[in-house]
Amino acid sequence: MRSLGSWVRFVSLALIWGSSFLWIKISLGGLSPTQIALVRLALGASVIIGLAVLTHTRLPHDRATWLKMIVPALFGSALPFILFGLGERGVDSGVAGVLNATTPLWALLITLVIGTERKPGAIRLTGLLLGFAGTLVIFAPWHAAGLASWGALACLVAAISYAVSYAWIGRYLVGRLSPVAISASQTSGALVLVAVSMPFAGGLEPVKIGFLPLVAVSILGIAGTGVAFLLNNRLIIDEGVTTATSVGYLLPVVSVLLGVFFLHEQLNPRIVAGMVIVLVGVALSRRRATPAPVERPELIQTSLRSVAQRDSS
Fold first, then answer.
1. Cα–Cα distance, 86 to 237 (Å, whole number)
2. I want to staple 60 with a disulfide (CB 3.0 to 4.6 A). Which of 65, 144, 187, 257 is the partner?
3. Of 250, 252, 251, 247, nearest in space to 273 by CA
4. Mean pLDDT over residues 284-299, rounded?
5. pLDDT at 47 over 80
6. 209 in the Ramachandran plot: left (φ > 0), alpha (ψ -120 to 50) or beta?
7. Structure pTM?
């Protein structure tokens, strides 16, 4: 990265998003998953829309663009926010963070299917297979009491949901809206979707809010949603998509360590092995094939003249 500011944003983003699974776990002590998602989106949207107002950023004003924003609002915010809350009712926060790290693998697979990504080479294909193998190790379906549970499945579906959103944004929205406009539209749209789903998705459960859950959900909303979206968008602008998305490599490490130190979660060898395999797989799957060297026309002509001279002699 080219500047100290980019490094600060990169590390800050890893800490904010990596700690989100800890804050979700604490928030569940007083709120349901849907209530957490609602408060998180309300606070996050307020931060981003406030920035849009201060910077005079125009939000989409046509119906066609808002219809396109339904997909990232649903799959990039509303659905995964609820699913990770549901998932962490049954699995540790560290496991949720590790499963979230499979998002780049699913994104690669989706972009291959829809044709926006060219076929992977041997290295990227190996990474894809390793990533799914690591996920299998984490789930441990061969154990009767393993992590093949509804909680782990919810976290995995949330990771796939994020991947759907990224693929959609990359195909239909990048270059048409500013990063702030995309973020503001996505979070506000997701807020509406979650609010509508409240009566049907456990949003009316009794609230038992205490000091720690209140602090946790506030951090989730202001930092984990609002500030993190803005940091990520700035990083994309300054350093490019590849550098910005590489922050995902650090999230499982942060989430696992925070779960161990602050929630006293157990760190067994299988989870560690699965985490390492997933991280290696993600790193390999992000590798770009080295383009073949392009021969310059003047060199080709010189070579042809040399051959012709040899033949005539």
1. 33
2. 65
3. 252
4. 50
5. yes
6. beta
7. 0.79
